[in-house]
């Protein structure tokens, strides 16, 4: 993304740039991946090898970074990805090809690359079927997890409590 010479930045250009900067900054502030091959093996994944499982955990963390969120929560996302792989051959082929694609974009072993290089490699995949699938699956799986709800302050559904008018409609104390 760049502004053509002679053209002034629009509000949209500035917002897009800020969004990318914030995403990169939050991803860079993440602690290093703490999982090891034993953690992945303990999950007893059937379709993914240890390397691919660890790679997917890191991809999920970079797509939706949350400081204070354990790798185990991202590992749950990988379980959901593996479930999708079992149900859909297209997803199976797509995900199994992810390491090769990411290594190529990084110009070497993506997992050993610096976080900045990992982010750059992921950004090169935007618009691809692989990126779309991983982004959407991580989004859905991650924010369905009650552990994440607690971290972001979501109290859960209000339907069984009479809806949001009776529970939480004006509780937005962080918006002051």
Overall description:
There is one protein chain. This protein has nine helices and no strands. It has 176 residues and is mainly alpha-helical. It has helices at residues 11-28, 37-42, 50-63, 71-87, 89-96, 98-106, 115-124, 129-142, 146-152. It has one domain (15-152). The longest helix is centred in the N-terminal third of the chain and has 18 residues, at 11-28. Helix 3 packs across helix 4 (71-87) and helix 4 packs across helix 8 (129-142).
Helices and strands, with pairings:
Blueprint (H helix, E strand, L loop, with lengths): L10 H18 L8 H6 L7 H14 L7 H17 L1 H8 L1 H9 L8 H10 L4 H14 L3 H7 L24
Name the shape in a single word: globular
What is the N-to-C order of secondary-structure elements (H for helix, E for strand)?
Answer: HHHHHHHHH
Oligomerization category of the chains in this entry = single chain
> What count of structural domains?
1
**Percent in strands:** under 5%
Which features does this protein show?
globular, 9 helices, 59% helix, 176 residues, mainly alpha
Give a summary of the structure in a few sentences:
This protein has helices at residues 11-28, 37-42, 50-63, 71-87, 89-96, 98-106, 115-124, 129-142, 146-152. The chain is mainly alpha-helical and 176 residues long.
